[in-house]
What does this fold into?
Amino acid sequence: MRTINIANQKGGVGKTTTVINLAWGLALWEKRVLVVDFDPQGNTTTGLGISKRGLYNNVYTVLSGRVPIREAIMSVTNNEYLSCLPANEDLSAFPLEAAGEKDRLFILDGALKAVRAEYDFIIIDSPPSLNLITLNAMTASSDILIPVQSEFYALEGLSQLLRTKERIEEAIAKKINILGFLITMYDSRTTMARQVEEELKKHFAGKVLRTIIPRNVRIAEAPGFGESVLTYDPSSRGAFAYKELVKELLERI
Amino acid sequence: MRTINIANQKGGVGKTTTVINLAWGLALWEKRVLVVDFDPQGNTTTGLGISKRGLYNNVYTVLSGRVPIREAIMSVTNNEYLSCLPANEDLSAFPLEAAGEKDRLFILDGALKAVRAEYDFIIIDSPPSLNLITLNAMTASSDILIPVQSEFYALEGLSQLLRTKERIEEAIAKKINILGFLITMYDSRTTMARQVEEELKKHFAGKVLRTIIPRNVRIAEAPGFGESVLTYDPSSRGAFAYKELVKELLERI
Ligand SMILES: Nc1ncnc2c1ncn2[C@@H]1O[C@H](COP(=O)(O)OP(=O)(O)OP(=O)(O)O)[C@@H](O)[C@H]1O
Ligand SMILES: Nc1ncnc2c1ncn2[C@@H]1O[C@H](COP(=O)(O)OP(=O)(O)OP(=O)(O)O)[C@@H](O)[C@H]1O
Ligand SMILES: [Mg+2]
Ligand SMILES: [Mg+2]
It folds into this structure.
């Protein structure tokens, strides 16, 4: 049973895309997967084909104690191995409301305890920030996977992200394993992408995943149909790359 | 004198890119421009060629009263019309520290009062969130420009962003003008881009800017050299589009 947090405070690097495609990939390998959408934007929820309209049972009402977690978890259509604890914008109230609680770092971790045994993997999406939402996601996780867009600004925030992880580890007296850095939106025709790859490997040798996700429009089109690229266009370069990622992670875990 | 906040809580939609290229464009038209980097990631600071290492004078030390604003404003190389109030990750402490202050919405607005008269435009970059940093950026602004990436998740957060703006307007008893929605990273070969454009025009007719920014690798390469695409590759499609944007905004203002 592993809980993987997909995190990076830089926006638009492929966090949600990686959550959805990794979760679908593991489910196609018949692993029981729970996806937790822990971003008030609720993009993972929509990308899995779940409507956010009138969604009273969600991760925020679960954490505020109003709804039992089992009543909020929804199965994702066409895949019996894949479930989702959805989110909507109500979640943006969480950082302020939880700030005064003594165990404010452990709120998500505590809520997940009741169901952890029923899954092989729990995958948590985070928002593009380092607030109490992201800190809860890290605390609830055994591993962290960090998508890095292969463009100029990509490397800037990584040291702050890793320092935040270290501060969490001290606060909760537990180690969070860096599963790896995943290079995303890679366009091999540009020197910029190759430069980011070289820099990343120089700073984090051994932790940069072998699999590289190419920029591929089929990846961006898939969520419009509530699907993963693996089912939307199984023969695309994007699907091939995410299948490779699943294989690589199953080797490492 | 107009203060324009470039905002959208969705990550990676081209906020920083628009701040830098719009500011450079206005400066090339000999407008006096101050860029305020109000994002702890500090991407605008780096993209303007300013090093964040050891940068004690920055927007955070100004707002906490330790440094007078004039001592933190830096001129951008090669352009006498363009200055920047830089940021680094210290700024991420601001939301928590300011939360208890009575006038917590007006902190940035108050700090800018001393220098407003010296500029024709102030352009404020915001982080991908709706926290006290973004609320301060809105409060300090006369106008808001909203970049919208032409991809599936782009439309999801817009209603929350506009509701947040309305709540701010009530709290500060002042109207913030929507300068427009700017379509970014547009790839005319994909139906996805055309669909987003149609949806946007259906919901916000009249407020969608005529200028559309195409996906263009020269735009992504320019910050690596501390330059705007306007000076890095003036003949590129990206430079042409941002020049058109400057013209269109000068017509509207
Ligand atoms: N490899 C890829 N090729 C092409 N497009 C991609 C790829 N990965 C992600 N995208 C697209 O890029 C955009 C940003 O990706 P995504 O929303 O997954 O990033 P994110 O890190 O979750 O963003 P946020 O910081 O807002 O949560 C989306 O429109 C997505 O469809
Ligand atoms: N029109 C474009 N064509 C190609 N690449 C672009 C374009 N606009 C922005 N980019 C690139 O896309 C990435 C995201 O853009 P940018 O950092 O400006 O977005 P942002 O909204 O400021 O992100 P954040 O939410 O993290 O603050 C950057 O690598 C940038 O260089
Ligand atoms: Mg996301
Ligand atoms: Mg930015």
In short: The longest strand of chain B covers residues 177-186. Chain B touches chain A through 38 residues (CB under 8 Å). The pocket of adenosine-5'-triphosphate (ligand 2) is lined by residues A 10-12, 128, 151-153; B 11-17, 39, 43, 128, 184-185, 213, 215-216, 219-220, 238 (CB under 6 Å).
